[in-house]
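Record type: ASSEMBLY
Status: queued
Input:
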Amino acid sequence: MTNKSVIKELAVKTDSKIVFVVLDGIGGHSLTPTGKTELEKAHTPNLNKLASLSILGLSNPIAPGITPGSGPGHLGLFGYDPFKSNIGRGVLAALGIGFSLKTSDIAARINFCTVNSKGIITDRRAGRIPTSLCSRLVEELDKIKIKGVEIFIRAVRDHRASLIIRGKNLGGDISDSDPQKIGLKPKPLTGKDIASKRTIKIANQFVLKAQEIIANKKPANMVLLRGFAKYQKIPSMKEIYKLNPSCIAVYPMYKGVARLVGMKILKGGETLDDEIDVLKEKFNNHDFFFLHVKKTDSAGEDGKFKQKVKVIEDFDKKLPKILNLEPDVIVITGDHSTPSILKGHSWHPVPLLIYSKYCRPDAANKFGESDCLRGGLGMINATDIMTLAMANALKLEKFGA
Amino acid sequence: MTNKSVIKELAVKTDSKIVFVVLDGIGGHSLTPTGKTELEKAHTPNLNKLASLSILGLSNPIAPGITPGSGPGHLGLFGYDPFKSNIGRGVLAALGIGFSLKTSDIAARINFCTVNSKGIITDRRAGRIPTSLCSRLVEELDKIKIKGVEIFIRAVRDHRASLIIRGKNLGGDISDSDPQKIGLKPKPLTGKDIASKRTIKIANQFVLKAQEIIANKKPANMVLLRGFAKYQKIPSMKEIYKLNPSCIAVYPMYKGVARLVGMKILKGGETLDDEIDVLKEKFNNHDFFFLHVKKTDSAGEDGKFKQKVKVIEDFDKKLPKILNLEPDVIVITGDHSTPSILKGHSWHPVPLLIYSKYCRPDAANKFGESDCLRGGLGMINATDIMTLAMANALKLEKFGA
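Status: finished
Output:
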C-alpha cells in the first residue's frame, strides 16, 4: 500500500463525491465444486449493468489466506494497514456504542455466560439474553468501584457488553478469558508487560465483584472478557485524504470503526431503505459516504445460502436509488467473504467494483467472483482501494510532478 | 520489487542486448465506457505480430491509484523504487539540460509567468514564451550574485528554466511557490529543517532580484519556483545490473533521468527515425538501450485521441527497423498512462510487452490494454520490469545457487 504520508501530500479537496458501499461478507462460495457462489446465483441486473461500465477486481482484505475480523476488514477498506493499525475489538465495541473513549483507556468486550456450580461454562452466550436484560445487569455492574481507576460498564446488544478501565499506567496486551468452548472454566487473563499485568489485577477484581452480583441470576451468572485493547488515536480520513467523510450504518460496531477514522456518523433508521434515504438527504453535506449493508454477512454467518442470495437481490433492486444521486465514484465491495458453506468469515478474496467516468472499464460485466477475477483491477490489497477511489474522483495530484 | 543488493549479486555480464522502448504515456482510456483506448484503436500489425511472440502484462508505475510524474515513472522502469529514490524534478530538469550538478547542489525549476500590478498571477506560463526569449531572460538572471553561494540560471525550454544553488549547508526540502492556479499570488516558500530554511532565504533574495530585472518585460515579468531538490548520487545501472547502458531520447528531461542512473547519452536528431538510426549505429557499443518516444504523451496531454492513435501507428511502422537488429530482449511499455480524455498523466496501469526467445509467450496477441490484462505477466509493479528484462537476457544467476 502507498504510504499515508504520500497520500496526504497528494490529496486535494474537490467537489467530487465518493459512495463506498460495503456489502458485509459479500464474497462467498459455491455449494458444489462447479456451482455458483451466492453473488453469482443472485439475479442482479442493476449491479451487472453498473459492472459493465466499471472496472472489477478482487481484493485481499489483509493478506492471502488471512481471515479478517470486521474491525481490521473495515480499517483495510479505509486504507489503514490492519496489521499496523491493529485496534482491538474491545476498543471498536466501545466506540461502536458511542462511548467517548479517552486516550489510554483500556477497553474489553464482556460476554454474559452461564456457568454451572463448578464454574464450568455451559453456555458462552447465556442463551443470547435480550438486550433489555443485558442492560439491567449492566446497570448493577456499573456500580462496581475499584481503587485507583474508573470503571465503566455499558450494554452493547444481546449478551454483549463493554468494559472500560480508565487510569494511569494501564496496558491492553491481555489475553481473553473466553476459552471459545463450553465444558471449560474461564481462562486466567495473561499479559507480559508491567502495565498489562497491573490491568489484569484490576480486571480480575472486576470479575470477582461482578460474579458476586450476578451469581444467582439466570441464565447470565458469569462474565467472560475478550478483546482487551488500549485506545490510541489514529490519523483521521480528513487528515489523510482531505475528505469530509460520513458513515451510514445500522450496527454499533461499524459506527465505531467509522468514528475511529474520523467519519461523521449520520443518524438514520434500521433498514437499507432508511440508509439510502439518509444518503439522499445528506448527499450535499459530505464528499465521502461509507454505506454499510449488514445482512449479507448475517445470512452467511447463519449458513443460509438462499437468504444471502435474497439479500443481494434486495440490494440490487435498491441500487438505482444510489445511482440516481450520480456520485462521481462508486465503490462496491465487502470487508471480507462470508461463505454460507463456512458459516463464518473467510480468507477468500472479495469482489470489488469501482465505477467512475475514468475507471477504464474492462470486459467483465457481471458482479461476481468469476468475473471479478478477470477484471481490470486484478487482485489487489484492500488497503489500495481508497487510493483508487481517490484517483478516480480526481482527488490525487501526480507524484513527483 | 527485488532488493537491488540481490540483483547486484546475481547480475552477470553477457553479450546479450536489451532494447527498452518507452512509449511515453502509452496507456490510455476509451472515449466511451464500452469503447477502445488509443492503443486498441490503433492499427498496429507489427506490434501485434511481436505481441504474439511475446509475454504481455500491465504494470503499475508507482502503486495502485498513484499518478506518476515523468521522473518517478522512468526511475521505476529502470528498477529504482520511486518512493525511495525520490529525486526532485529540479534535479531531473538540471540533469536534463546537461548541467553538471555537484553533490549537495540544490536545484529548482523556474517557470517564467505573468503577474498583474497587484502581483497576482494571470498566466502561469507567460504565454509559453519561445525558448529564444527564455534564453535572453536567463542570461540577465544568471548575473545575479548572492553572498555565500554560487547561483546558476539555465534555460530549459519555452517558459522553463533551472535554478541551481551551490554552497554549504543547503537543504532541498522546500515547498513550491507555484500555486498551480491563476488568480493567486505566488506562495511563500516553506521548509522545516534549518538547511532548507537557510536555502529559502537565498531563494527569496534571488526572486526579489529577478523580479527587479524582469518587472517591465512582457509577458514574462515574474518567476515561480518548484521542485526544489538536493542532488545526491544514486547507484548506477552499471553497478546494479553490470550493464553498459545507453539512452536515446530527444527531450532533456529523459536524458536527465538516464544520466542520473548512469546511462551514456547517445547524440542524435529530433525524430523517431533519427533515434532508430542512432540505435542502429551504436548497436555494437552497448548492451542496453533506453529508447524514448515522446509524442504519445504529448498527444495525450493535448487531449488529442486521434493524434495519439497516429503516433502509435507511426511507431508501429518503424518497429521492424528495431526488430531487424535482432536484440535478445525487447521491452515495450510506458512510464505511465496519459489518456487523451484526461489530458494528463494518470494512475491507470500501463501496457507491457517483453519479447525474448525465452519469454514464455501467452495467448494475448494484440498490444493493447485489454489483451495485456490477460497476458502472462499479469499485473506487476514497474520496478520488476528490469529484473524480468535481465532474466530474459539470461543475465541473472539463480538465487541461492
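Annotation: The interface with chain A takes residues 29-30, 33-34, 37, 58, 62-73, 82-83, 86, 88-89, 227, 339, 341-342, 344-349, 369-370, 373-374, 378-379 of chain B (CB under 8 Å).
Annotation: The two ends of chain B are 20 Å apart (CA to CA).
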